[in-house]
Each structure stands twice: as structure tokens, then as C-alpha cells.
Amino acid sequence: MQRVTIHRDGVALSCLVGGSGDDVIVLLHGLAGSAAELVPTAEALLPEHRVIVVDQRGHGHSTRWPPDLSRRAYVEDVLAVVAELAGGAPVTVVGQSMGGHTALLFAATYPELVRRLVLLEGGVGGREERGDYPAELGAFFASWPVPFADVRQAAEFLGDTPVAQAWLRDLDRRPDGLWPRFEPAVLRDTIAAVADRACWDEWQQVQAPTLLVFGEHGIIPVAEVRRMVSLRPDVERVVVASAGHDVHLEDRDGWLRALGQFLSR
After folding, report:
1. Eight-class DSSP state of 174
2. Band of the pLDDT at 128, cuts 50, 70, 90?
3. Which of 39, 77, 219, 238 lies 20 to 30 Å from 246, alpha-carbon distance?
4. Mapped to the 3 state alphabet, what secondary structure does 109-141 carry?
5. Among positive and negative, which fits the CA dihedral 68, 71, 75, 78?
6. pTM > 0.85
7. Which helix (H) or strand (E) holds 41?
């Protein structure tokens, strides 16, 4: 895949692009992730689809300290990507976790640009049943003893979970050591905007055919999932057995099977 960068409102948005054809799929990673962790998903969709994998603002190779971390800013970033890299034609938007929230809001705001919507462990946002998770996540990322001297030291701290392995593979090598491709304060403020309110109205405004994929041990509250389905009984829902929040990293085959079946309809 080829890395390209577009610019919007003073922010650089780095994307990985590959494939060809009119069926364009935009992939959006979750908080503290990057396009790199979705490359296996993208490669599974090639060459039948044209795939655009976005480093969302504040993540990956995109602008590290963007001035605007509002939900609107993230949605407008997707609009800019679709306009410049997909010719402004309707696309399928796939988002995991925070990226799923971005995808949901994009589909509600620009229904004419969304052919299909896929939320992977994504919900409507808000804080119900979850406590002050923005503060907890911000504190966790701020606790990383960076820079790491080497990959071994980073692995000793981060562990060997699938998401930890993704972080390790994506570390930024600098003269003073290894750094994550994000700033803890940016992540805290980004997820605080997601937690600000539950976007039930926007969920009901989505017109595109929608697939919800959850891990059996994911983090989206059961009551939230039930309400999402009750408000939009037309959506498809798949639960990947034994998987947690990072389904695409924990059970890639299960995730790709669910995604592929939905896209083939």
C-alpha cells in the first residue's frame, strides 16, 4: 500500500491507499491505534476493493498535536479523505472503537457519502455504565516510561497482548529512544469528546446498511448494544466468540469472515 498525505485546516492526515475499483472502503482505527494495525484487514480486501486506511488526527503519521480534537473535526477529516482520495463518491466506512464513533457520526452527517457502515466494537459514546474512562485512559497512557530504550524494555512494560504487540510494532524510533505515535493529553481529550454525550439521535439518522461486530468479551455495555439494535432493527450484529475489544487483532479470521460476508451482499 502507498502512503499519501492530505491536508485540511492546517492538519496533515496520513493515509495508506491500495487497490482499485469503484467499491471504496475507508478504515478508521481506534484510540491510540494507527493505520498500521488495520493493514491486515486492508490487505484481505485487496485487490477487489480500493482501500483507504486513515491515521486519524493525533495518531500515527498524522499531525501529533492537532488544535481541534472535537468530534466534528474528526468527521470533517473523513470528509476530506473521501473527497480527495475517493473522488467524493459514496464509500463503505469501517471503524473500530473511537474510529467506529467517528464512522457513525460521518454516516449520520453525510448519508449521501456512505454506502455501508461497519462498527467494530463501536458504540454511541457517552459515559453511562463506564465511569470516568477518559481520565483513566489518559492516566494509563501518561504512565508509559518513555522514551523506551529498546523494544525489549517496551515489551516488558506493555506486555504481550495483541494490542500491546500492535503498539510495539508501531513505535517511533528517535535518537533518544522509542516513542508511541501519540500524545497522552491528545488521547485523553479525544476520548473525552466521545464520552461527552451518547449520540442516539445520530445513530437513528444513519441510513446506510449497517453491521455491528462485537467481541464476546468486549467493552460496549450490553444495555447499549440492545438499545442500538432495538432502535435500528435492520442492522446486522455479529459476536466473535472469545474475543475482547480488539477483535481485529485477537481473532483476525473471525473479524474478516464477518466483514467479508457483509460486504459480499
Report:
1. E
2. confident
3. 77
4. HCHHHEEEEEEECCCCCCCCCCCCHHHHHHHHH
5. positive
6. yes
7. helix 39-45
